Every structure is written in structure tokens, then in C-alpha cells.
Amino acid sequence: MATFLVLYGTGEGQTEKVATRIGDVLIDRGHEVTTVDANEVSPEFAIDDFDAVLVGASIHAGKHQPSVREFVTATRDSLATKPTAFFQVSLSSADEGGKAQAAGYVEEFIEATDWNPDRIGLFGGALRYTEYGFLKRLVMKQIAKRNVTEMPDADSAGDIEFTDWDEVEAFAADVAAFVEGRLGITPPAADDQAGVE
């Protein structure tokens, strides 16, 4: 069993949902997981207590959460000593047309923090029209029209989720397998088969 930290920054809750799903996959594989919002990390928080770290952030107005950038910058040396992954949630990742833009945000983040995660995942976000005021709803509709070419039919009174949950779970399983291999941990499936003849 490995101990995982899943730290995330979220604007409207979708990145938190993604972080939670990643944590669930890791737990199902028999690992211990601590999921933390970057805004709630205390100065004495020690990532050395974890075998592996996943960091997630969403994109708002072309930027990641400052708390996530600050965390990565402050812990960069420790992150370099263990298996790591970065996942990003954005409308740009909602369809093929925005993938290059989403990848560009990741490149900017890596350059700004001088951190090179072992694995990277890009996931579509969500539009929470029910939580927006009138002006923000109008702005978000315009952003969605520019960034999502295959916009589902929905009026601006409902929420739209673009996250591919199968993709999120596959990413989490890939990260788990990578960490298990790097740390020399027998994967759970092999454990289950060990006593079967």
C-alpha cells in the first residue's frame, strides 16, 4: 500500500469532484489517500509523509489557482523526490479543438513552477449556470461558444458537465500503476491472485 496526497485547487467545484474520483480509484486499489484543497493547506503541512503526490487545478481566465502554484513552487524540491502527477480541468479540454490550448496552460504552469510531473491528465470541466449571476452566465455562455465546438443543447438555466469520468478513472489507474511500479508495490490484482492456484 502507498500513501497518496491528492491536492487540488477549484473554482466552482468540478476539480474537487475530479480529485475525489481519483482518490476513490486509488482507495479501491488498496492505497491510503488524503485529499486536500490547496486553500486549506497550513504552512506546516508536510508532503514528506506521502509516497506520491497528485496536484490538480482548474483554469479560470487562463490561469490556475494561485494557491496551487504557490504549493508546487514551495514544495518543488520534495516533489522531485517522489512519483507525481498533475491534472487540469478546463473547458478547453472539453473537445478536440481546445486540446492544444489546454496543453499550453500546462506548459505555462510547468515553466512557471519549474516542476516536471511524471504523469499529466487533461479533463473537461463544467458550466454551473445554476450558480452564476446574470452577468457571469452571459460571459460563460460566450466563453463556452468560443471553446467548445460541440456544445450540448441546454439552456443557460441548467448545468453542463464535460468531464469524461472514464478518462479520469483511467488516469488514476495509470498513476497508481506507475507509483506501484516505482515503489516496488505488488498491484492489488496480483495480491488477489497470489493465493489462488
Automatic annotation (TrEMBL):
It comes from Natronolimnohabitans innermongolicus JCM 12255. PROSITE patterns: FLAVODOXIN, FLAVODOXIN_LIKE. This is Flavodoxin/nitric oxide synthase. The lineage of its organism: Archaea, Methanobacteriati, Methanobacteriota, Stenosarchaea group, Halobacteria. Signal peptide: none annotated. Residues 4-170 form the Flavodoxin-like domain. Coiled coil: none annotated. GO terms for biological process: heme biosynthetic process. GO terms for molecular function: electron transfer activity; FMN binding; menaquinone-dependent protoporphyrinogen oxidase activity.
